[in-house]
Amino acid sequence: MSHYPPSVLRLIREFTRLPGVGGKTAERLALHVLGAPRKEAHALADALIAVKETVRFCTSCFGLSDAEVCRICADPGRDRGVVCVVEQPAELVAIEKAGAFTGVYHVLQGVLSPMDGIGPDQLRINELLDRVRDGEVEEVVIATGTNVEGDTTAAYLSDQLAPLGVRVTRIASGVPLGGDLRYVDGMTLKRAMDTRHAL
């Protein structure tokens, strides 16, 4: 690999910083960019810069947005009485793709993981509680993963929400134990959402 010019080596090195991209894949991507038309390379570079400059967290749900409020939160057709709590924006996208939910979302930006130093204050839990206290929310659907951290987070949220008088449900069967929502097929997610149950 050291036979490449420094600029190509730099590009390969940058590609290896991406999750799941090893040295061989990074080399292939760099050579693809090198062989692509100048216009395509500029489009890729522009897209990378634009996403860093324009994407932010929605001020309501903390999902990804190009505006202050995301398109889901801004949609008057969504049921604001039902809030689906997910770990990351990727899970929100997975549920949306499945067409399984017509309410709004709340993205925690992670899960409770004391071993990693992630407690309630590092997540968007207080903002969720504030949304419920505002009175419009009737049901909170907890759609965290079914691994230990996801279950711990679900139990913690249930305890915090109980005194607020809101119905708390958890996505039901269909999501495999230890599964990551981003990789569950649409039909399974739809079934899990349709058969959610009280905690």
Question: In total, how many beta strands?
Answer: 7
**In angstroms, what is the radius of gyration?**
20 Å
Strand order of the largest sheet: 4-3-5-6-7
Largest sheet, described in full?
5 strands, mixed
**What is the CATH level 1 assignment of the largest domain?**
Alpha Beta
Overall tally of structural domains:
2
Quaternary structure = single chain
What is the string of SSEs from the N terminus onward?
HHHEEHEHEHEHEHE
**CATH architecture assignment of the largest domain:** 3-Layer(aba) Sandwich
Structural class by SSE content? alpha/beta
Strand content: 5-15%
- CATH topology descriptor of the largest domain: Dna Topoisomerase Vi A Subunit, Chain: A, domain 2
Q: Could you tell me the mean pLDDT?
A: 90
Task: Sum up the overall morphology in one term.
Answer: elongated
Measured as a percent range, the helix fraction is 40-55%
Give the end-to-end Cα distance, rounded to a whole number of Å.
55 Å
Number of helices: 8
- Catalogue the unreliable spans: none
Structural commentary:
The chain is an alpha/beta fold. It is 44% helix and 14% strand. The protein has two domains: 6-54, Helicase, Ruva Protein, domain 3, CATH 1.10.8.420; 77-198, Dna Topoisomerase Vi A Subunit, Chain: A, domain 2 (3-Layer(aba) Sandwich). It is elongated. The model has no long low-confidence stretch (mean pLDDT 90).
